[in-house]
Structure formats: C-alpha cells, structure tokens
Amino acid sequence: MTQHTSTSCNAVDTIIRPLTAQDDTAIAAVIREVSAEYGLTPDKGFSVADKTLDCLSEVYQAQGSQYWVIEYQGKVVGGAGVAALVGNIGVCELQKMYFCRAIRGQGMAKKLTKQCIEFAKQQGYKSMYLETTAVLIEALALYEKLGFNHCQHLGETGHDACEIAMIMGL
C-alpha cells in the first residue's frame, strides 16, 4: 500500500497579496494551527491569544500598517504584517508571521520578510522590531541571516511569553 503525501509547494504557484476581510478566518486558523504545532498556547501570552486575531483586516487598516497573506492553490497558508510599535517613534514591528507546514522551506518566509522590510522603509520607519520565542528555530535563523540583532524588549506588545526581542535598522 503506497501512501502519498504532499508536504511542499512550488513557490511559483504562490501568491503574496494584501489581507482582505475575506481572509480573516483563514489566517486566524493558520496562526492557531501553527501555534498549536509549536506549543504556543493562548494561555501563555503568545499572539494566538490576541483578541483581534479574528479580525486582522481591521487591525491592519491603520496608517503605516499592512498585512500580507500567502496563497497557495487558492488557500491561505501563511502571512506576516507590519505595524507601528506603540510608544516608539520611527519603529515598526514585524508581526504575526506564520506559515503552514506545506509552505515551509520554500523561501517564502524570506521573501515575505523582505517585502515587509521594503514596506517599512517606504513608510519612513527607521527600525524594525520583532518578538519571538526560542522554539521557532527556523524563524530565529532567518531573522539573524537578514540582519536582525538581539535587543532589549521595547514597549508593551502584549506578548510577554516571547522571550527574544530583535531589531534591525532600516
């Protein structure tokens, strides 16, 4: 008996596009699925607990904010966003970057992060900040490779379980 599973996608078949209200349910499901996979539970202060998780399209309508989704075969399989870091003039935050297993290892995280960085520069931000956790080994490696440096936590993001803070100058 042969078992066939497809665990990767072709980056050529993927689309990166701005989040719409029709995507809210799908991207919230991706964030919940990936969070559960890594043990990032809502009770521990990770972004999966955010009250706005089911209405991200509304959150990212703010000036200087944008969220993109990655679509593969007509299905939302990942995303990431940029928004101002409250209380830190000139600093934005890379937020809610999550990818379904099927799209990992295809270079999409790097591509989307670079798109977020370019957007941040166009918006006039001087630095990009992020918070993450040590269990996201692949994400940490990507951030370091792209030039993010470890730093002190800035502001109150509400994600107190994210023990790692990083920043990069734009």
Task: Walk me through the structure.
The protein has 170 residues and is α+β, with helices and mostly antiparallel strands. The protein has a single domain, classed as Gcn5-related N-acetyltransferase (GNAT) (Aminopeptidase, 3-Layer(aba) Sandwich), CATH 3.40.630. It contains 4 helices and 7 strands; from the N terminus they run βααβββαβαββ. A 7-stranded mixed sheet has the order 1-2-3-4-5-7-6. β2 and β3 form a beta hairpin. The longest helix is centred in the C-terminal third of the chain and has 15 residues. The N terminus is likely disordered. This is N-acetyltransferase domain-containing protein.
Give a topology summary:
Elements: E1 14-18, H1 24-37, H2 56-59, E2 66-72, E3 75-84, E4 91-99, H3 108-122, E5 127-132, H4 137-146, E6 149-151, E7 164-169
Parallel strand pairs: 4-5
Antiparallel strand pairs: 1-2, 2-3, 3-4, 5-7, 6-7
What is the CATH topology descriptor? Aminopeptidase
Strands across the major sheet, in which order?
Answer: 1-2-3-4-5-7-6
User: Compute the gyration radius: what is it?
Assistant: 16 Å
Q: What is the H-and-E element order?
A: EHHEEEHEHEE
**What's the mean pLDDT score?**
86
End-to-end separation in angstroms reads 53 Å
The low-confidence parts are: 1-8
Instruction: Give the biggest sheet.
Output: 7 strands, mixed
The tally of structural domains comes to 1
Q: What portion of the residues fall into strands of 2 or more residues?
A: 25-35%
The top-level CATH class is Alpha Beta
Assembly state (oligomeric): single chain
Kindly state the percentage of residues in helix: 25-40%
- Level-2 CATH architecture: 3-Layer(aba) Sandwich
The total of beta strands comes to: 7
Keywords: Transferase
Protein name: N-acetyltransferase domain-containing protein
Domain N-acetyltransferase: 14-170
Pfam families: Acetyltransf_1 (PF00583)
